[in-house]
Structure formats: C-alpha cells, structure tokens
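# step 3/5: fold
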Amino acid sequence: MNGQLLELEIDAPALRDNPLGDPSRRPLIVYVPPGGAEGRPAVYFLHGFTGSARGWLGVSPFTPTMPERLDALVAAGEIPPVVGVFPDGATALGGTQWTNAPAVGRYQDYVAGDVVAFVEARLGTLARREARAVAGKSSGGYGALVMGRDRPDVFAHLACHAGDAYFEYCYLGDFPKAAAALLGSGGDVIAWLEAMKRRGRETKLNGNDVPVLNVLAMAAHYGPDPAAPLGLALPFELPSGRIRPEVWARWLEHDPARFVPSAVERFRQLETVFVDCGTKDEFHLRWGARMVAEALREGGVAVLHEEFEDGHMGINYRYDVSLRRLAPRLR
C-alpha cells in the first residue's frame, strides 16, 4: 500500500446511553493517501448490515480490501488523493441503518457530528461540505440516502450502492421466515435473540437466523415502540403472521422510494448523487434504485444511475466506479 492505514478509536457522545447498551467508544479505520491527510477531502464509507469498521479490512484471496482499492485508484491517478473514513455501526441487533432511531441510537449524529469532527480535528481534512462525501452499500447505501436528505449541510456528495428501497420487494419476503422462527421461541423476541447469540458463540448461526435478525433490526429503526420488548413493534401478528397495517405504514414512511420524492429539494442541494444496483440483486433492490433515480431526475437532481450484471454480495468493486465520479468533484 502506498498510503497509510490508521486504526483509531473514537469516543462518540451521540452513542452514549443508547437503548441497546452498545459501546460509545468505537474503532475507526482511516485510509490516508501519500502526502498525508491535512488539507485533503474525505469520503465516509458506511458498511452494510452485520458489518463493522474492521470488516472493511477482511482479507480475501485475489480480492483487494476497500482501503486497498482506494489506494490503487489514487496511485494510478484515476482519482485525486482523498482520505477514506470507515466508521463502526455494529449493534446488538446486527447493525444500523445509520439514522437516529429511538430504539437503536443516534447513528446519524454519530457520523455527521462525532466522526466528522474527530477526523477533521485529528487529521486536518478539509472542513467544508463540498469536500465531504458519504458512500455505502445495502444498509450503508440506505444510510447515505438518508444522510443526503437530512444532512446536506455536512455532505455535498453521496453514493448509494444497492441501498434498501421499495420495502415491499426487499423486506416482505423475510416476514414469514421471521414469524416462523419466532413462533419457536413462543413469540418472545428477547428469548430468540439470546438463543441466536448463544448459537453464534458456541457453534454458528443457522440459515434461519439472518432473516429474523434483519426483521428485528429494521423494526427497531422503522417501528419503535417503547412499551414493547426491545423497544420495537413487530410488523406482523403472532401466531397468525398477519401483517399489522398500522406498523407496516410506519415502515413505509422510511422507504426511500417514498421519502425521496417529498424531500427532493434537499437532494437538489447536493453536488453529486450516484445510485446503482445489480440486475441480479437477491433482495430485488434494483427496482427501488430505479424508483429513487426516477424521482430524483423528475425533481431536477442530476443523478448518476447505473445498473450492472451482478447480485448483492461481493460488489465492493462498484466503489471504484462511484469514486471515479465523486472524487474529482470534491472541493
């Protein structure tokens, strides 16, 4: 690697006393290009569900890590030198959607406030919105879209790779799987969660665990209920499995396919919006990406929308594409 990789820690005030009891002291991975970070723009990378900051460093045969990809782009002169920042969003429910969620924690404030301030104070990156981009895939892509809607004062550029959108297609398929698994725990979500964690410690998770965990985590973000176990309302009844219309309606309020059209004025404040998804995405996210891109175009946003022949997993190479678009625009 031509640049430098830093493994730092950050104390995040926004995450103190969060509802899940997750740590507020977090690892922070930072890629620094040759010549240092001072006076350089920065790209903030949001990992997907069940990811972590250190997950970006996972070594795989023949496949570069994301910091290595960033380093190679800089070394080849394909993008100007930028700092890559990789915050940690791991939670007791498997991850965050990078929003301020009452049942999870203030993860948007953590990134847009704590992490940005820490990086600029510690490393001297450029302290202006035009020099900051946010990028992510899956839940991270969703977080990038929400960050673009809520924090255009902090980030002027975003890239959303296969972000969660059009909830009917990407989430509903997990509902019957989750309902069946929770029935085995008598409908007790806390008992199910503890059993799942025990399996992970003692052996490994089974194939039915991830859909349940995904439903619980999304319910915590989209359907908080302080009176319910884990502070979340299940989107379906038990034992019948019937969808609860009033809860599902609350989920849909958080769907980018719905909120982008109504918040398009915020997206017009951005200088770069990149959206893509694979045509073979296993969670059917290409359709939500199309709807988001269509709404942005109709609202006067110069969105860069692409599709590619691949699925949902193992597509970090798509960051090469978005970075070639984003990085030269960082000012």
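# step 4/5: annotate
The mean pLDDT is 97.
# step 5/5: archive (pending)
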